[in-house]
From TrEMBL:
InterPro entries assigned to the protein according to its UniProt record, in alphabetical order: SCO1/SenC (IPR003782), Thioredoxin-like_sf (IPR036249), Thioredoxin_domain (IPR013766)
SUPFAM superfamilies the record matches: Thioredoxin-like
Protein name per its UniProtKB record: Thioredoxin domain-containing protein
Name of a matching Pfam family: SCO1-SenC
Alphabetically ordered keywords of this record: Copper
Thioredoxin domain segment(s): 47-180
Similarity-based family: Belongs to the SCO1/2 family.
Keyword Cytoplasm found: no
């Protein structure tokens, strides 16, 4: 029997209904894919959780030093994930999902703060993140963050996603309605419609409705 050599990332795109052309993503080098192959067909898992944000400083893709707490507590609903720019499997998919969510929010997108925090701050300088954001068409409401290794680890630990090695990270998305509220944690490859429903289910964002999506 001939074994398929088709990259897992491309298979995952087909399973999730995405185009196999991802802006800014290099999918040829997929040496770590076997570590996550079981997650492609896995259903997402939803949990309502509370997290204590650490007092750390991060650096936005525009080069500005900022407080994580102040950035996340600006009053807007939040959609947050962790990524790194040289990732060839999970991050291109989750970043594309964020790009699709941004498009579906349409004129309401500026009311939502979309946050992507690098788990590889040594490689992901503000300049690198800015180029990555541009490749995926990130608007001003979608910001990318880096910083020191210690700060990145502290952020990952706070959201219980730290795995000790960037190659072992899993797709996880977090949604919060407002400062002080609990978080919706979604483990797995949540499609953009699923994230949109998560936002629509929150009282402060009920008006963002799309009739083609079953809430």
């Amino acid at each position: 029997m001939k074994t398929s050599t088709k990259p897992l990332a491309l298979i995952a795109l087909a399973v999730l209904g995405f185009s196999t052309s991802i802006p800014g993503a290099e999918l040829e080098d997929v040496g770590s894919m076997h570590a996550h192959h079981h997650m492609v067909m896995e259903q997402t898992k939803h949990q309502i959780v509370d997290y204590k944000l650490p007092q750390i400083q991060l650096v936005r893709e525009d080069g500005k030093n900022v407080s994580l707490i102040e950035e996340l507590n600006d009053g807007r609903p939040l959609v947050l994930n962790f990524m790194y720019t040289t990732c060839t499997e999970i991050c291109p998919l989750t970043t594309k999902i964020f790009a699709e969510l941004q498009d579906k929010l349409g004129t309401e997108r500026d009311r939502v703060h979309m946050v992507s925090i690098s788990i590889d701050p040594e490689q992901d300088t503000p300049e690198v993140l800015a180029k990555y954001a541009h490749k995926f068409g990130a608007g001003p409401q979608w910001q990318f963050y880096t910083g020191t290794i210690d700060a990145s680890i502290a952020a990952q630990r706070a959201f219980e996603v730290y795995r000790g090695d960037k190659m072992e990270h899993n797709p996880v998305t977090f949604i919060r309605a407002a400062p002080g509220k609990s978080w919706l944690r979604i483990d797995g490859f949540a499609k953009s419609d699923e994230l949109l429903r998560g936002l629509g289910d929150m009282d402060v964002f009920k008006e963002v409705r799309h009739p083609e999506i079953a809430y």
